[in-house]
Design brief:
Elements (H helix, E strand, L loop, with lengths): L4 E2 L2 H5 L7 E4 L9 H14 L5 E5 L20 E6 L6 H8 L4 E4 L2 H12 L4 E4 L25 E6 L2 E7 L5 E5 L2 E3 L4 E2 L9 H10 L3 E6 L1 E3 L9 E3 L6 E4 L13 H4 L16 H10 L7 E4 L5 H10 L6 E3 L4 E2 L2 E2 L8 E2 L3 E2 L2 H9 L5 E5 L2 E2 L5 E2 L2 E2 L2 E2 L5 H7 L3 E4 L3 E2 L5 E2 L12 H6 L4 E4 L3 E6 L2 E7 L5 H5 L14 E2 L22
Length: about 500
């Protein structure tokens, strides 16, 4: 009978050898084997080992400071990183920007689907996701700095269409976190916010002859776990690390509303304070229609959920998060990826299957740069190397998209965000216009729409002078075929707006 070894975090970290390829599971602060990552950093600082790791992670695994994959952001410890997003990992962003580590940014959905293909012994993922963006080999092929040379993405022709082929790799170690392990290594996730792709990652490492290390809160005797609650079977698990003090997210010790154990009144969800973020989120909330299935991205778009809760309209549509939550109200800040009162939590690869196939009626996501053709950049700008997360999978496939952001950037508003040419194409406006996707760009000063001819100014905020407050801060002149309408005055008042979604799909 195969049973796992029960080790402390330092002993488990000692099993990771120089040159290994390590999959680090997690999203923000949940699903993360934090104790093992911290132990790995201590080992490297004390001994200089292990070295030259390739670290693969699906999305942002960090706290904007020192936890998560930030523990591994040491020159010499890392040789290569393949990740979905680095916005929560400033130490790693610096290594990448300084050209001190190879860096590939793949779409979040592609990565979690790639683990399934590796588990099944397949050569990689064939997907339309990333075509005509910087994932396309005709642009950057997902490479994020000059040091990164090897081509891991190929353009292929199949069934009369272009596709991107994302190549498989061989994992040596998988690090993941669950809630409970029994004596045979069966793992449940009852206190987690999401199931992520734990099963696929464990299967991929096991079938490659690798090592699966699972951090859990507690252990119980074999036979104590309900078979349907086991998400990672013990046959896949080599090492169990018990860490009873692990938090559910970086901000919350444990919320039963995030795990689906208990529902809480939505009045408990704090409203956004009045300001630019709330103005933008309110205008975006006015585009939502009853019956829609919607994704809300990280950052500015998180506020849409809080506006919907404040307005009492959350039940009119279904909000989803790429990590796997369906229904409820998405949480914000370092709780992002969790949801209050979800109706269901599915494995992340299956959530992206739904997204990639066109299941989303609407997506609300943030932007960093926009140009005259409607191209959007969220991934590499102003010396920062952020990565896409699920942005490409979501915006390329949703039936309608709202991009949200302040009109200018920087504390003094001196940074132009509407630029002549984006530094990197994360969303291809021309391709979206060609397929007829309704797309809005919402700021606190104005609302723009994507047309086949380019970006068109549709609405302006009360008191905004078009020449002084808009055109004077843009790197291009938008189309203005007719006088723009005023933005709804209710958006700018302290009181609730009193909006009610109407039936039907689309943006307005």
């Amino acid at each position: 009978m195969r049973t796992p070894r029960v080790l402390d975090a330092d002993a488990a970290a000692g099993l990771i050898q120089s040159g290994h390829t390590v999959i680090v599971e997690g999203s923000s602060g949940f699903g993360v084997a934090e104790a093992v990552l911290a132990a790995l950093e201590r080992r490297f600082e004390a001994s200089g080992e292990p070295r030259d790791l390739t670290v693969v992670h699906t999305t942002g695994v960090g706290d904007r400071a020192a936890r998560g994959i930030n523990h591994l952001a040491h020159e010499g410890l890392l040789r290569r990183v393949i990740g979905g997003n680095w916005g929560l990992m400033p130490s790693l962003i610096k290594l990448i920007a300084d050209d001190r580590v190879e860096a590939y940014n793949f779409p979040q959905g592609v990565l979690c689907q790639l683990y399934r293909e590796i588990a099944a012994g397949k050569p990689g993922v064939i997907s339309h996701v990333g075509l005509e963006t910087y994932m396309d080999p005709r642009q950057d092929g997902g490479r994020m700095n000059a040091r990164t040379q090897e081509a891991l993405v190929e353009l292929v022709q199949l069934a009369g269409r272009e596709w991107l082929f994302y190549k498989a790799f061989k994992p040596d170690v998988a690090l993941l976190r669950g809630t409970t392990a029994d004596a045979r290594g069966n793992i449940t996730l009852e206190h987690e916010c999401a199931l992520l792709e734990h099963l696929s990652v464990a299967q991929a490492a096991y079938n490659a002859g690798g090592l699966v290390i699972a951090q859990v809160e507690r252990m119980v005797a074999h036979g104590r776990l309900h078979a349907q609650h086991v998400k990672v079977p013990g046959i896949l698990v080599d090492v169990v690390v018990v860490e009873p003090e692990a938090w559910q997210t970086w901000m919350v010790r444990y919320s039963p509303a995030f795990s689906g154990e208990r529902r809480v009144p939505l009045a408990d969800v704090p409203p956004l304070p009045m300001g630019e973020r709330k103005v933008i989120a309110r205008r975006a909330a006015m585009t939502l229609r009853a019956g829609m299935v919607i994704n809300l991205g990280v950052g500015m778009a998180e506020g849409v959920a809080r506006v919907a809760a404040e307005e009492g309209i959350s039940d009119a549509f279904t909000l989803t998060i790429e990590a796997g939550a369906i229904g409820g109200v998405p949480a914000s800040e370092l709780n992002f990826g969790a949801a209050y009162n979800p109706d269901a939590i599915v494995d992340q690869p299956y959530q992206f299957d739904f997204y990639d196939g066109g299941g989303l009626d609407m997506a609300c996501v943030s932007f960093a740069q926009v140009d005259a053709r409607g191209h959007v950049n969220v991934t590499r700008f102003a010396g920062r190397v952020e990565g896409s997360g699920g942005f490409i999978d979501i915006t390329q496939n949703a039936k309608a998209v709202c991009f949200l952001g302040t009109f200018t950037g920087g504390k003094d508003g001196s940074i132009r965000k509407f630029v002549e040419r984006v530094e990197q194409i994360s969303f291809n406006g021309a391709a979206a216009a060609a397929r007829g996707a309704p797309v809005l760009y919402i700021t606190e000063r104005a609302v723009f729409a994507l047309t086949p001819q380019g970006l068109e100014l549709r609405e302006v905020a009360p008191g905004v002078d078009i020449e002084r407050d808009l055109l004077g801060h843009m790197g291009f002149a938008p189309l203005i075929p007719t006088p723009p309408k005023p933005m709804d005055a209710r958006i700018f008042r302290e009181a609730r707006m009193g909006i009610a979604p109407v039936p039907g799909l689309g943006t307005s």
